[in-house]
Design a protein that fits this description.
two-stranded antiparallel ribbon; 7-stranded mixed sheet; 2 domains; alpha/beta
Length: 450
């Protein structure tokens, strides 16, 4: 057993011991096929980690109060194939750096086994597999139940906390992503079955191996900045126990599969079978390659469901407009930019530049408000707005009637105009509360010459 496997084994053992010693009242009181009160649902953050400790610190501090668990994936190599230590896993084992967060941290160390070129290089197959495994194993590790919310993206994409907290605690928005179709049905009802029991050949799959059973309106919902972003990452999605258990959604599949379902109805309750996998529909059967030769759920698609602005309107895809930030150019030193460039899937953008040329290119892009990777897309200059009071922070008025009345007015009041402006220029709470620690995010000149 090499050191990587040993670290993985120790980490998993520590996590399992924690599960045994920690009471889980939600599991003992809530059945899989019960729809919980939205006010009691949980929120999970599934993270890919390479070594960006500054962004990880920001992520954990910003979301600790509203996220129930952070599942953090890291591997023993970068997407480009360069070997690397398991930084986060070793930090948990050897230091108390994240002692204040450890009750919500679930490390997921994995070994990358894919080594192929899908036409776009060797990095993208590894990234696709990592995202797929992260969502599958993440849902299992948190014991996801119906209507729980999970978000997935990179560390440099941050949704706004005041939006996430309302999505978690308030109902009434679920149809934007999940559509209309109700929750899972009890298997105690003889008319309810699962297409994972016995022969499921009547359920067709597309060319990617995805089951052609409709469960949602959209794969996920994104958070979009109005001026400087063309991608809505990270995305959030609702965990649907109907999908996970293999139950048909009556909204659009009932008539299509009515005949085959009727022949399979029985009093059998698969949840009583110890060999039945309740997360089967959120898995993919072949993760040894990126050729999509298996069947099941492609977790890597969650992040890209609301990617292109031009397609949002024709596809009638909702997003949380002005709902987050993209910190792709906010790393503390130029050397960390180099590490990112040589690690991530778009590394070919800088393949033919020397280190010094690369540094100059990155600094030039940042100072002139261009996207630091790929084509030189010009960004809108968004001047930040700090809170008027350090002790009170940003003051919001999100009362429905207030916004409804003011949006109808031809001439907006000064107060309402200030609220709208604030939503475009606010920054994460942890940054304005810790201006020295995050000086390189408030003033971009800090760190660029380091």
């Amino acid at each position: 057993m090499n050191i990587i496997h040993l670290i993985m084994a120790i980490t998993i053992l520590i996590f399992l011991v924690g599960l045994i010693l920690t009471p889980t009242p939600l599991l003992s009181t809530t059945m899989w096929n019960e729809v919980p009160d939205p006010r009691r649902r949980r929120l999970f953050s599934f993270i890919l980690f390479n070594g960006e400790f500054d962004l990880l610190n920001l992520h954990l501090s910003e979301y600790y109060e509203i996220v129930d668990y952070f599942v953090i994936y890291e591997s023993n190599s970068t997407f480009t194939g360069n070997p690397k230590p398991l930084y986060f896993t070793r930090t948990l084992l050897e230091t108390d750096r994240y002692k204040n967060f450890e009750d919500k941290l679930i490390p997921l160390p994995c070994e990358i086994i894919v080594d192929e070129d899908n036409g776009r290089g060797i990095a993208f197959p590894r990234e696709h597999l990592a995202r797929k495994i992260l969502i599958e194993k993440g849902l299992r590790s948190v014991h996801a139940r119906h209507s729980d919310i999970y978000m997935h993206g990179d560390l440099d994409k941050l949704p706004k906390t005041h939006i996430l907290s309302r999505l978690k605690k308030c109902g009434g928005w679920e149809h934007l992503q999940a559509g209309i179709g109700g929750g899972p049905k009890s298997f105690k009802n003889g008319n309810v079955g699962s297409y994972f029991i016995g022969d499921n050949t009547e359920v067709e799959t597309n060319e990617l191996g995805e089951y052609l059973v409709d469960y949602q309106k959209d794969e996920s919902l994104g958070f979009l900045n109005p001026n400087i972003g063309t991608f809505a990452h990270p995305n959030i999605a609702i965990f649907d126990a109907r999908r996970s258990l293999g139950q048909f959604s009556e909204r659009s599949n009932d008539k299509k599969f009515k005949k085959s379902r009727k022949s399979k109805r029985s009093n059998e309750d698969p949840l009583l079978d110890p060999n039945f996998d309740p997360y089967q529909r959120y898995t993919y059967t072949d993760n040894t390659n990126d050729k999509k030769t298996g069947k099941g759920f492609l977790g890597e698609k969650v992040r890209f469901a609301a990617s292109k602005i031009a397609l949002l309107e024709p596809n009638q895809q909702p997003v949380f407009w002005n709902g987050g930030w993209h910190f792709s150019s906010f790393l503390p030193t130029i050397d960390q930019f180099l590490n990112k460039v040589f690690s991530y899937s778009h590394f070919k953008d800088y393949k033919y530049e020397s280190d010094e040329e690369l540094k100059e290119d990155i600094i030039d892009r940042i100072k002139n408000h261009y996207y630091i990777f790929g084509k030189k897309k010009k960004y809108h200059e968004n001047v930040i707005q700090l809170p008027d009071s350090y002790s009170k922070g940003y003051q919001y008025n999100f009362e429905y009637q207030y916004w409804k009345d003011n949006t109808k007015l031809k001439k907006r009041s000064k107060e309402f105009s200030n609220y709208v402006k604030l939503l475009s220029h606010e920054i994460p709470n942890q940054i304005w509360r810790n201006p020295i620690c995050y000086s390189f995010m408030i003033d971009r000149d800090f760190g660029l010459e380091k």
